[in-house]
Amino acid sequence: MLESYGEIIFLLHFMLVYMASVNYDCPMACECDIDDETVNLSCRRTIPDTLPLNTRVVSITDIEYEYLQHSDFNNARWENVTKLYLRGGSVNSLFSYTFLNFRNLKHLQISFPDLYIISMNAFSQLTQLRTLDMSGNFHLSFDVVADALTVTEFTNNLDELNLQSLARFLTPGELNETFFLQLQRFNIKRLDLSQSNFRKIDPIALSLLGSSLEELRMIDVDLSSFVFYFYRSYAPHMFPNLQLFDISFARMKWFVLSLSIRDSVGVYDCFFPLFQARNLRMNNIFSETVTQVNITYKSLNCNRDVRGRIELKNNKIRFLNINVDPKMPMYREVDFSNNGLEYLSLNVMSHFTVMNWISLTQNNLGAMEKYIEFVDLFAHNLDLEYIDLSFNNLIRLPRDFFLFNSKLKTIIISNNLLTSQLFRIEHLNKLEYFDISNNNILFLDSSFLRTFDIMNLEMESNQSNIRQFSINLTGNTFKCECDTKGFIQWIITTRVTLVHRESYICEMQKNVVKINDNSPKDIEQICERTKLILMATLISLFSAGILVIIGIILICSYRRCLNLRHIKFLIEKYRKEDPPNKHLVFLSFCNSDRDFVYRYIIDELKDTLSERLDASKDDIVCIGDINFEPGRYILDEIIRCTESCCVVLLVVSEAFCKSHYCDFEALCAELEKKPIILMFLEEVDPKCMSKIMYKHFQKYTRVKWTRNGDEFELVPSWAKVCDSICAFAGANARFANKASIVEQTPLATI
Ligand SMILES: *[C@@H]1O[C@H](CO)[C@@H](O)[C@H](O)[C@H]1NC(C)=O
Ligand SMILES: *[C@@H]1O[C@H](CO)[C@@H](O)[C@H](O)[C@H]1NC(C)=O
Ligand SMILES: *[C@@H]1O[C@H](CO)[C@@H](O)[C@H](O)[C@H]1NC(C)=O
Ligand SMILES: *[C@@H]1O[C@H](CO)[C@@H](O)[C@H](O)[C@H]1NC(C)=O
Ligand SMILES: *[C@@H]1O[C@H](CO)[C@@H](O)[C@H](O)[C@H]1NC(C)=O
Ligand SMILES: *[C@@H]1O[C@H](CO)[C@@H](O)[C@H](O)[C@H]1NC(C)=O
């Protein structure tokens, strides 16, 4: 029995405790939200005097009291609360000992837009406090906060003092020695002065917090005087533990002033102790476009261990140069994104020797491609593991762009204008993510695909590895054609993870289609068709070619055959002593060439022809000197001679061209429709030739005398020339009655 009584008592006790915490009577005029150890109260004209048991976190909003005092929290129930948030409402004063009962309070937030009075002892007895958040007290001055803290006895140091948006509606105060001396003894680790309203901040005074300060945020504040002061403050290691210095959105007149003089900024490391923070954030400082920023770190033995991260985002810097003297390892992580950077000096990158992470997204580094040194931009960053170059208007990266970055795990070059000609990746055997989405890639060549497959295989076969290898190719319109079939096949079959593969598209016969399992087959069909068409075209071309060749051969042989028949016919005629004309050739030459003609031409011509025709030499060749009848009119004789011969052979020289008789002889031959053969003794200016001669000169091949030392030589040979003469004569004779259809035969080319 006793045991069951004990049980009942225990149960009752448990139920009571449970009821007390669950069935907490939310005070009138309050809205309550209770969850585990947290109580959110939205009260107006009251502050409850009871709390659920074991409440640790209390938030009270919209208190419509003018002031808070000790009696408002005069209850033992508050003793176990560790976090107290007081926000909004109309409280303007905190009286002495208000928080006396919060013996275990670690985190206190007071955020009253109207608060402007804090009594000296308001915070006394808050011995456990680690975080004091006074943000959003727009009417509270820095002096009031500092004074209130003066008499406070915190057992521990303050981890965080948040003074965001303080004194926004007041005339700006001055953060001088008086202020920082009051804070000094709390060994504050994190100080936030963002968006607060102060006119001046004395950096030397600020350095009173230096030994403990780990994070300093001064986002969106007016730092014009601050930077000016800093020139005077030389004291290395003033902030030896500073992990973060954030002046994003800060308004710095000094910067702006220097910028107007050729847009140059100098930051001197040791003179600027705050800039030695492991992590430096200077985003959105420059609202105007900055064409050139030179940052110079003058190291005066103040380089600490390797730093964390530098951020220079959204600063509209077009040209960035950082000089460090002497060189020292700089930040591990670098974020220069969204600046529209057109030039990043090699110098900058060569200082970041320990850098493993860089984001350069949303710049314009495509403008740097034209410089030869572009290829070496990351040649000094041997530890680089992550790089983001998206949105940079890059058209073509050099083949050796990542030659020295064999530790790269992530490459993001999405949203550029890159084509299929990419850089080398075979050596990047640590690669895990490769993003070339939204570019102009038509295909990846087989060496790329092989490398990807190998990398993937290595990663898959490593049991202890949990990482995955993936590639992002979305947003490119590939080419689905015969020569890219291998690539499309790879997309379908590879074991590499392709991000959003289902969305990949390609252009197939001018249509954009989704790539699916059937794509390789479709391409195959198109290829087969194309191949067939190509084959057919080739075959028809080939056959046409053969036909043409056969035709040419036939024509040529027919001609030769014809010539031979003409010659044979002529020989036959001569054998029957029935020559077609009295003379075979009328040799027309000019008087001044007489010597040459007698010496080199007449005999040879007669001999060769008579030998060919097996006829007597007499009368074969008609020569004016011999065959013109003396005493007759010379033009008549020329006509007679032309009529009585089969072929006219004109011996052409400069003198021949100028002679009227010679001209007439050519004219006669033309009128009589006699075949004409031109035999050149020398080069003759075509301009001085008669019309008929010029016509022949242009249309037909000719015979030429060339000089070989003292010897003269006929090209082509006499035999050929005589064959031609015989062929012409034979043809002329055979078709004597028909209109002349004599075709001239090629003799020689000049
Ligand atoms: C109390 O308010 C905070 C924000 O002010 C909220 O995050 C939390 O969830 C609330 N708790 C309950 C129990 O409603
Ligand atoms: C505070 O916590 C202690 C120890 O857990 C406990 O004994 C005491 O009852 C609690 N006080 C209140 C008011 O909840
Ligand atoms: C600091 O500024 C306050 C006003 O904000 C002024 O009263 C005080 O005298 C100044 N202290 C020093 C040391 O300049
Ligand atoms: C910035 O540095 C570059 C390279 O060292 C130099 O050519 C340029 O004149 C400098 N600009 C200014 C304004 O000092
Ligand atoms: C792949 O690229 C697209 C387009 O750039 C992007 O929206 C998407 O987030 C990327 N996917 C992954 C997993 O990174
Ligand atoms: C396997 O993966 C683990 C973890 O990523 C890595 O440390 C190890 O070097 C890999 N082993 C081989 C043989 O690549």
Automatic annotation (TrEMBL):
It is found in: Membrane. Its main location: membrane. It is a single-pass membrane protein. Keywords: Membrane, Signal, Transmembrane, Transmembrane helix. SUPFAM superfamilies: L domain-like, Toll/Interleukin receptor TIR domain. GO terms for cellular component: membrane. The keyword Membrane applies. Residues 581-726 form the TIR domain. The chain crosses the membrane at residues 532-558. It holds the Pfam family LRR_8. It comes from the Eukaryota. Belongs to the Toll-like receptor family. This is TIR domain-containing protein. It comes from Sinanodonta woodiana.
